[in-house]
């Protein structure tokens, strides 16, 4: 007996109308998906992964259209279906987990009510039992205290919690096909593993088919039966997950595999051969004198008083009146020319620590000594006018959100020079911006472009150029490559290593990817619940961790086959 595939995409071509004429985002794609199968679609930004999935859902924006080809789902011609038919299919038969969970949720509507909306829309519940069904679904996606979370708004939940809510919405009607579009972007490794394990468990229980869209080859190898590799809108390779890693056939697949951080390799090994043939990086120098000394750092946040008046009167929520300790007695040093990695799950206190070192937050207690001065005693509100402000800079996690959309690349790079620098005159500042652009590998011709006209890698370079514009002694890197493709990440990490050696800077590198930290940092601190669990050399921490928690973090990393 022949089993027909659940989804068939034949000769699919998608065009977008632009002022310069039509642009083909996807060209002549063929793929099939069987019932109960998990298919991985892998590729970098702009490869057409998400556009293909939006076409299956018929969610292309007004400028996009299916120029040719055919999409068949369970015998239904998706490309020919009316919008009324698609509204009936979406959520009930085909569901999607979107990349940004907060953007996918209504910010002014309780999450329980949003789940009810889906159930009621597809006649999976009545007004009488919708609430209980919504709570049951929250329980299925492992939401703690589901009866309470039913009444929560998205802004009251963590990123991992919001991701679980989005999964609950997608699975509420038990669809036949689930499309997960980068479902773990921005999540720490243990939350990522928990999310993916949850998706796989629930879809297997219900014998659902899944399409996982990702640029993480390790993730695809761990969770997918088959993998399709896309490049610039075309399908370049497809095979079983085991076969594609054992013997990749296409040069682009080999490039992606090479750029994926993994155990036993160095930063230069991530680069393709044509970039490795250039100038060799400056060798690392032994660390110098102590640049930053943090002693017994503590940060408490006041109670939220979120409990109701009645519950507080009845003492049912006594913990709500206690301050929350985000950082608890942290002590460490960074020497001149050294890179220190700060790793741990979301909520462990990494970013709070870096914000206090950066003097954007005031510590509750403890001492921060930078360049021999007690900078922790300077109020955060006044530190912008301190002479130490120019000596410590930051590269933020999201290269897009950290740039002013109204500033050109040159104006963004020049911003700290205008505020804190000694260079005067537009010609001199332009010359300095061109120097910095050349230093970070940004073409000078791009200096007059705005952020929306730059790629993710180019925006990351602008952020780095801005951070080093005043020759800082210490640069705090807050997940600077988390939103980048693996090949762009490889180039940016090598750039950071070269800049540190050339300019003699020190790095505080905040991340949850231990492979990346091992390659860039000499020493690592592992944090959990505001405290240091373990610290030591990067090689020792990764190869021979002493703490159970560190071993959990390493085990949670997706491991692509060698």
Determine Rg (CA atoms, Å): 25 Å
Low-confidence stretches: 306-318
Main sheet summary: 6 strands, mixed
Mean pLDDT: 85
Helix proportion range: 25-40%
Indicate the overall shape. Answer: globular
Distance between the termini: 38 Å
Q: What's the total count of β strands?
A: 20
Structural category is alpha/beta
How do the strands line up in the largest sheet?
6-7-8-3-9-10
Residue share in β-strands: 15-25%
Number of helices: 22
Please provide a written account of the structure.
The chain starts with 6 loop residues before the first strand and ends in a 6-residue tail after the last helix. Helix content is 35%, strand content 24%. The chain is of the alpha/beta class and 562 residues long. The protein is globular, with a radius of gyration of 25 Å. Strand 17, helix 19 and strand 18 form a beta-alpha-beta unit. The longest helix has 18 residues, at 486-503. The chain is built from 22 helices and 20 strands. The strands form four sheets. A six-stranded mixed beta sheet has the order 6-7-8-3-9-10, sandwiched between helices. The chain has a six-stranded mixed beta sheet with strand order 16-17-18-13-19-20, sandwiched between helices. Mean pLDDT is 85; it is low at 306-318.
Compact overview of the structure:
The protein is an alpha/beta fold and about 550 residues long.
């Amino acid at each position: 007996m022949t089993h027909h595939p659940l989804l068939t995409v034949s000769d699919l071509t998608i065009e977008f109308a632009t002022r310069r004429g039509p642009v083909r985002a996807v060209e002549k794609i063929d793929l099939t998906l069987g019932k109960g199968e998990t298919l991985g679609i892998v590729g970098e930004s702009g490869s057409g992964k998400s556009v293909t999935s939006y076409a299956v859902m018929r969610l292309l924006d007004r400028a996009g259209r299916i120029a040719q080809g055919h999409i068949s789902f369970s015998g239904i011609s998706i490309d020919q279906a009316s919008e009324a038919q698609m509204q009936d299919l979406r959520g009930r038969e085909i569901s999607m987990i979107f990349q940004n969970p907060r953007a996918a949720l209504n910010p002014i509507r309780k999450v329980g009510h949003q789940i009810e909306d889906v159930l009621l829309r597809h006649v999976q519940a009545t007004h009488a039992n919708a609430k209980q069904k919504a709570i049951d679904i929250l329980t299925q996606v492992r939401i703690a205290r589901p009866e309470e979370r039913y009444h929560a708004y998205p802004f009251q939940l963590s990123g991992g919690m919001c991701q679980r809510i989005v999964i609950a919405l997608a699975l509420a009607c038990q669809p036949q096909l689930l499309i997960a579009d980068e479902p773990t972007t921005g999540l720490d490794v243990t939350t990522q593993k928990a999310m993916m394990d949850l998706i796989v468990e629930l879809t297997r229980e219900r014998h659902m088919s899944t399409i996982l869209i990702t640029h993480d080859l390790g993730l695809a190898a761990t969770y997918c039966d088959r993998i399709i590799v896309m490049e610039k809108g075309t399908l370049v390779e497809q095979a079983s997950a085991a076969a594609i890693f054992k013997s990749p056939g296409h040069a682009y697949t080999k490039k992606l595999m090479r750029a994926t951080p993994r155990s036993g390799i160095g930063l230069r090994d991530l680069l393709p051969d044509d970039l490795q043939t250039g100038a060799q990086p400056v060798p690392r120098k032994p660390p110098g004198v102590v640049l930053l000394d943090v002693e017994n750092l503590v940060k408490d946040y006041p109670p939220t008083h979120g409990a109701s008046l009645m519950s507080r009167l009845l003492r049912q929520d006594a913990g709500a009146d206690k301050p929350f300790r985000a950082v608890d007695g942290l002590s460490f040093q960074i020497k001149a020319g050294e890179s220190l990695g700060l790793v741990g799950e979301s909520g462990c206190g990494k970013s709070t620590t870096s914000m206090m070192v950066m003097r954007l937050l005031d510590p509750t207690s403890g001492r921060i000594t930078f360049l021999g001065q007690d900078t922790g005693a300077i109020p955060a509100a006044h530190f912008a006018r301190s002479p130490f402000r120019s000596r410590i800079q930051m590269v933020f996690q999201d290269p897009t959100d950290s740039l002013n959309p109204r500033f050109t690349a040159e104006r963004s790079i020049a911003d700290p020079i205008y505020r804190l620098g000694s260079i005067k005159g537009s010609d001199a500042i332009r010359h300095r911006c061109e120097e910095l652009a050349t230093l970070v590998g940004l073409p000078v011709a791009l200096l007059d472009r705005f952020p929306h006209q730059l790629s993710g890698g180019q925006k990351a370079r602008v952020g780095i150029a801005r951070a080093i514009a005043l020759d800082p002694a210490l640069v705090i890197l807050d997940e600077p490559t988390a939103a980048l493709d693996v090949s762009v990440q490889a180039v940016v990490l090598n750039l950071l290593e070269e800049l540190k050696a050339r300019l003699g800077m020190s790095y505080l590198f905040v991340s949850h990817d231990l492979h990346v930290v091992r390659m860039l940092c000499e020493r690592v601190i592992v944090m959990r619940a505001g405290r240091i669990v373990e610290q030591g050399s990067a090689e020792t921490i990764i190869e021979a961790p002493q703490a159970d928690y560190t071993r959990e973090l390493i085990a949670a990393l997706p491991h692509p086959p060698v």
